[in-house]
Write a structure and sequence with these properties.
Protein name: HAD superfamily hydrolase (TIGR01509 family)
Organism: Kribbella orskensis
InterPro entries: CbbY-like, HAD-like_sf, HAD-SF_hydro_IA, HAD_sf, PGP-like_dom2
Largest sheet: 7 strands, mixed
Number of helices: 12
Keywords: Hydrolase
Strand order of the largest sheet: 3-2-1-4-5-6-7
Pfam families: Hydrolase (PF00702)
């Protein structure tokens, strides 16, 4: 465990849909290309994939296909071990396709992420990733969005490092352990209801930046909800909800994130 000073704070980012628009433009076509290469009788539409996003983890989404009728139609093994091996092969290939897309610069970074990361780093904040996606995919996106040099400053927790994936709090509880920090000093940045639930259930303050797949989800419990983190000179962010001491302006700043943290707000309220 890395011990961190009591005077430091941390920001922990989700990846898919938070750092970049990966779901619609990266994961969905990667899944469908994988299905085609393996001769599987399925292609997810955008709406169908939106439903699959309720399931945490790519392997788990693929495994959801394994109904008796699908197994029979695709000629797949009927035993659990054989099916697990098949899903692992699919997911390995899907990750290869996806990481190649990221390396080619095909997935747009979301506004404000790189800027907030630089602000946090300059202020001495700890940087971390908490994602249920495969680690290779996560690191590819992180390198693309913040640059390879800055990516080295992140603690990356991804994939199968915990037994239960979001919305279970396991990955955020592990983040607290690895960072050596208490929950009142950590803010999570998420884009979906499962991610929000995972952070909140771990006792961590969470801000939400929605995307096209998640904009209509229930974000009760979030400190504030915006349509993006925004950037100076760009279109002002839309604040969809705010239950914190933050006062977001045209774009979200590190000060806005700090204003959501109990360790900071309680200190300010002391006489």
């Amino acid at each position: 465990m890395t011990l961190v000073s009591d005077d430091r704070f941390a920001v922990v980012f989700d990846v898919d849909g938070t750092l970049a628009d990966t779901e619609r433009y990266g994961h969905l076509p990667s899944f469908n290309q994988t299905f085609a290469e393996f001769g599987l009788p399925v292609r997810w539409t955008e709406d169908e994939y939106g439903e699959k996003l309720r399931i945490g983890g790519g392997k788990e989404r693929m495994a959801s296909l394994l109904t008796p009728s699908f197994v029979a139609e695709a000629g797949l093994p009927t035993d659990s071990e054989g099916q697990a091996q098949a899903v692992a092969q699919w997911h390995k290939r899907k990750t290869e396709i996806y990481t190649a897309m990221v390396a080619a610069g095909a997935l747009p970074a979301r506004p404000g992420i790189a800027r907030i990361v630089e602000e946090a780093y300059a202020a001495g904040w700890v940087l971390a990733i908490a994602s249920t996606s495969a680690e290779a995919s996560v690191r590819a996106v992180l390198d693309h969005v913040v640059g390879t040099a800055r990516a080295r400053d992140f603690t990356v927790l991804a994939g199968d490092v915990v037994p239960r994936k979001k919305p279970a709090p396991d990955i955020y509880l592990l983040a607290l352990e690895r960072l050596g920090m208490t929950a009142d000093r950590v803010v999570a940045v998420e884009d979906s209801r499962p991610g929000l639930a995972a952070a909140v259930d771990a006792g961590i303050t969470c801000v939400v930046t929605v995307n096209g797949y998640t904009e209509h989800e229930d974000f009760s419990g979030a400190a504030f909800v915006v349509d993006s983190l925004g950037d100076p000179g760009a279109e002002p962010v839309a604040v969809l909800a705010n239950h914190s001491s933050a006062s977001p302006g045209a774009y979200i700043t590190l000060a806005d994130l700090a204003a959501t943290l109990p360790a900071i707000t309680e200190r300010r309220q002391q006489p």
